[in-house]
Amino acid sequence: MKVITLHHPHSISKTEFPPLVLALGYFDGVHKGHQEVIKSAVEKARDINVYSAVMTFDPHPSVVLGHKHKHIHYITPLQDKKEIMQELGVDYLFIVRFTSDFASLLPQEFVDQYIIGLNVLHVIAGFDYSYGRLGKGTMETLPFHSRDTFTSTTIPELTDQDFKVSSTLIRENLRSGNVMKVQELLGRPYRIKGTVIHGDKRGRKIGFPTANIEMADDYLTPKVGVYAVRIHIHDQWYNGVCNIGYKPTFKNPEEYSMSIEVHIFDFHTSIYGEEVYVDWYHRIRDEVKFSGIQELITQIQKDKDEAIHYFSEI
What we know:
With 314 residues, the protein is of the alpha/beta class. The protein is built from ten helices and 16 strands.
């Protein structure tokens, strides 16, 4: 897959690209609805013997369009999005830098410069896709703005139990800790990437050593609590139990730094500095403050037993 970053105004000539089928969207999460759009573009390109492409934007439009400074946490940060696009068989990925100048383009200007100007023969997007200043361009206006140079397909709404499959729905479920529902909506477990760093090593002292994970990007994290997870180390997956939170049994309440710690089952190797993936499968409980170390040890063993039972059933 070829990745091309476009800065507005771009100076790329239409002749620099082969004919393309282009999927349009922001695609945070690359959930089942997004996958339908992207897979349709890949299949359409194959059918008419041209190349497939996806156009996404960075940063999130709300960072630019919002009136207040807004720090966004992502379901799939840009690097993760690239990897998923490649797995889906996309040939070209256009990443458009979303700036106020770009956001001010009229719908026709966007189509002229970023669709017609990139040698696109066919566009595929979801039913709610909009483009141009104030989102005035829609899939209904796209045929008019196409100047008869390309055709388009609109992918209808995908629902799950009468709810629209959306990044918003995924965010709501992550914030409530419902990672099993998130897995249904994504078509894969929710994943974060990070590096194993040194922690306070309390887990080792009480018989449950943990890998302390420093996130590689601005991920939206699941609700604070304890989860059954899988962790990818050295090309192999291991089951584990993860605490994400503030360790209230040990921490001063005024200290406010969140940690992600994974106790990996049947694993005894030092992995400091290693890059890992953590996949979230099942919420076990809320994070609570225990009255003492022995109560904590007893609860961690129960958490571990529940996670082992969960993974034995799936």
